[in-house]
Structure formats: C-alpha cells, structure tokens
Amino acid sequence: MTVHVSFSGDFKSLVTPEATAKITSIKQAMDARTSAGADFLGWKNWPSEMDASLVTRIQETAQAIQKQADVLVVIGIGGSYLGAKAVLEALHQPFLTNEGVEIIFAGHMVSGAYLKNLMTYLDSKEVAVNVISKSGKTTEPAIAFRFLQDYMETRYGAEAAERIYVTTDAEKGALLDVAKDKGYARFVVPDDIGGRYSVFTSVGLLPVAAAGYSIEQLLAGAKRAEQELGSVDAEKNSAIQYALIRDHLYHAGYPVEISAVFEERLKYVQEWWKQLFGESEGKEGKGIFPASVVYSTDLHSLGQYVQDGKRMLFETFLKVESVEDDITMQHAENDSDELNYLAGKTLHEVNDAVQQATAEAHLSGGVPLVTLSIPDFSEETLGYLLYFYMISCAYSAYLLEINPFDQPGVEEYKVNMFRLLNKPGY
Ligand SMILES: O=P(O)(O)OC[C@H]1O[C@](O)(CO)[C@@H](O)[C@@H]1O
Predict the structure, then answer these.
(1) What's residue 132's pLDDT?
(2) What's the rounded Cα separation, in Å, for the pair 342 and 347?
(3) Over the stretch 81-137, which tens digit does the pLDDT of each residue have?
(4) Atom 16 of ligand 1 has which residue's CA nearest to it?
(5) Is 239:370 a contact under the CB 8 Å cutoff?
(6) Is 141 within 8 Å of 134 (Cβ atoms)?
(7) Averaged over 374-395, what is the pLDDT?
(8) What reaction(s) does this enzyme catalyze (predicted)?
(9) Per the residue annotation, which of 279, 281, 315, 379 is the catalytic one?
(10) Reading across the β-sheet that carries 256-261, which strands appear in turn?
C-alpha cells in the first residue's frame, strides 16, 4: 500500500467483530448503491472505469493551451478549485519552472484588488481561461468569470472563444448556456460526482495536464488505490484503518483533527482534505473538525496550543519518506553558529528529527498521533493518496451515520448574501 498508517494507540483493539461488521455493511451498501447519498458515488470506480478517450481529449486540449497561452486562469471554488490546486502545489518543486503553462486561480474568493491586478499581470502574457463550476451558478466564480470573459473578449475579440474552456454539468446551469451560446470547448462534471470528489475528472485533470504534469500517472495511482483499498480487511486496507482510528478518537473525546505536514508543498493537500472531510462529515451536530498546520512554521506558533492547550485534539502527520532534492550541512571552520554538530546530515534527516521530536512532545502532552506515510511526491503517489482520502472519508462519514455527499449547511450564507445584495427573489 502506498499510504501506510500508524497509530500511537492500540490499533488491533479497534478491529472488533462489531467494527468489522459495520465496515462490511457500509461497503455492501456502497457497492449496491443503497447507502445514503448513493447517487453521488460515481467517483468510487471512476479511476478504473474512466473513458480513455476522455484522457486523450484532456491531454490534447492541454497541449493546445500550452501552444496558445503562457498562463491558464482557472476559475472555480471549493471542489472546483482545491483538487487541481492541491496536486499542482504538491508536484511543483519550489522555485523551479514546470514544462507547461503557469496556472493562476481566480474566483475562489471575492477581491477586487486580486482580479484587477491579475488582469494587469495578464496584459503581458498570452492567456487562456478554464472556468469550472458543476452547478454553473456559484456566485464567486461567476463574478470572476464575468470580468475575465470581458477581458478576453476585449483583448482577443472572436478568438476569445478559442481560449475559453468550460467545465460544468452536461445538461444544466447558466454556465452551460453561456458555453453553448459562445461555442466554448466544454468538459463535463459527471452528474454522480460531487465537487470535493471530482479531482480525477476533467475538473482536476485539465489544469494539471496544462501545467505539464502526467495525468496518466496520477490516474494510475488512483486506480491502484481503488483496487488495493477495495477490501474490508482492516489489516490490509489503510483507508479503513484511518477511518476506524478517526472514529475511535472522535468517540474518545477528540473532536478536532489537526493534519500536520513537514513540507510546505503539501499545504493545499491539507486544504483539499479540509473541504473533503469538513463538508462530508460536519453535519447534524456531528463530525470531526479538520484543521491543519505546517511544521516547523507552526511549531513556533500553534505548537504551543497543541502541546498545552485544551485537550480535544489529535494529530495526523502526513509524512513523505523521500524527497527529490536535498542539501547536506557542512562543517564550518569557526562554528560561530554552533551548528557543526549537524555536519554531514541532510536537511531531510534534520526534518525527520523535527518530526520525531514533535511526535514525542505532543504525545507526552496528551495528543494522540496518527501517521500517514507516503513514499514521495510523484504523480502516482499523489493520485493514490487523494483516492485513499476519499474512500476513507466515505467510510468515516458512514460510521457516523452521516450522508458524505451533501452539504446543506453551505446554503445558509448564500441566502443571506443574496438578500444583502438584493438578488431578486431574496
Ligand atoms: O462547482 P460549483 O457548483 O461551483 O460548486 C463549488 C463548491 O461549492 C459547494 O457546492 C458549496 O457551496 C461545494 O460543495 C463545491 O465544491
């Protein structure tokens, strides 16, 4: 298994006959499409069932984008933004340029300064736009698209239609109508796959391919995860292990999970994970609150609370076993910084010591620890990891007797916002 799970508690004691029976009945209900929200289980077999011709079409479109543009502006929010952002940030080696186009996200928040300055930045670049919205009516990306569509039409005239790519529902939504009307190239968000489970569809794949990364490898990792994480044997299925540990800790009085990474590149995997678990589990007054920290940075900030604050937290380290690039500490003649004791060690080794020291400290402070280890930062590993999280999230929510695939709580702010902005009908 590409994702290895370890736990500071006694994992074996969690695999009771009752737990095994629950997991088995959840799997059976998912397979039979009778579980709550089963209409949105399309992501489950997507990696193995995805049409190869769609992968080819995405790759060809990505190549066309690379020919016509320096920058692809990807407009979207939530699941129509975070999957691609997570993959791109994790794959991108700091300060190095990748082969494909630069990807800039928009529409994930409302900021006039951001959009205004973005359009100024775009003036000196060749530009393409990929607007992504499953519903085709989410306000924040719709606002951003109104500005960027106008920008593209003013700048490129009729050619704008060849530079705008729309990813939306096959049959409904305002964005679909615009795409049809203007003749934009279209990609479909499958009906049975919700936003936060859509990273392996065109939603995530087109931006990742345009940036020059291998979507074949990403999908290969997801497909292997689909196969390896399909059994109900907790000893052999790390996704079930993670779900059982989370469920145990939640019921043992730990309602907050902090994802901790020691490589900043994983920050947006955490953001994606927060949406996945937060929107899937946080309803009916239940659910673990997903939070995140980046260490060492946050050891000098939130680390104080984790060590000594209210005891309601458990931590999940996401650990990368090997890195592509590293440097070694050298011996210095005068040792004025008193670091010669580190001579000969790579920074990955030093970072390992930071991880081990943090684990020991937080454990002794009463913070249970789960560790998810992945081997590297490759596309394949990432594909595996994201699928691991999705299947584990489904099990976690079903263990809490929650429908993992709706998000009724998100509507409340939208209704208030429409009223405050005088939208007709509100
Ligand atoms: O792709 P859409 O329909 O614009 O939705 C974006 C996001 O908004 C939400 O529906 C919440 O409002 C998320 O679940 C979703 O990922």
Answers:
(1) 98
(2) 9
(3) 999 999 999 999 999 988 899 999 999 999 999 999 999 999 999 999 999 999 999
(4) 79
(5) no
(6) no
(7) 97
(8) alpha-D-glucose 6-phosphate = beta-D-fructose 6-phosphate
(9) 279
(10) 4-7, 369-374, 313-320, 256-261, 289-294
Phi/psi for 6 (5° steps) reads -130, 160
| Average pLDDT of the residues in 153-170 | 98
Nearest CA to ligand 1 atom 14: 195
Q: What is the pLDDT of residue 98?
A: 84
Complex ipTM value = 0.98
Contact 246, 14 (CB under 8 A): no
Domains of the chain with bracketed CATH: 4-35+219-408 (3.40.50.10490), 45-213 (3.40.50.10490)
Which residue type does 144 have? A
Identity of the residue numbered 387: Y
Tell the residue number behind the tokens 């390992």, with chain if given: 352
Could you tell me which residues come within 8 angstroms of residue 395 by beta carbon, excluding any fewer than 6 positions away? 23, 26, 239, 240, 243
* Residue type, position 181, single letter: D
Q: Answer positive or negative: Cα dihedral of 276, 279, 280, 285.
A: positive
pLDDT tens digits, one per residue of 183-216: 999 999 999 999 999 999 999 999 999 999 999 9
DSSP 223-238: HHHHHHT-S--TTT-H
User: CA 54, 35, 48 angle in degrees (round to 5)?
Assistant: 25
Model pLDDT for residues 164-177, shown as the tens digit of each residue: 999 999 999 999 99
Q: Is 137 labeled as catalytic in the residue annotation?
A: no
Q: Using the CB atoms, write b or e for 152-187: b if 16+ within 10 Å.
A: beeebeeebeebbbbbbbeeebebbebbeeeebbeb
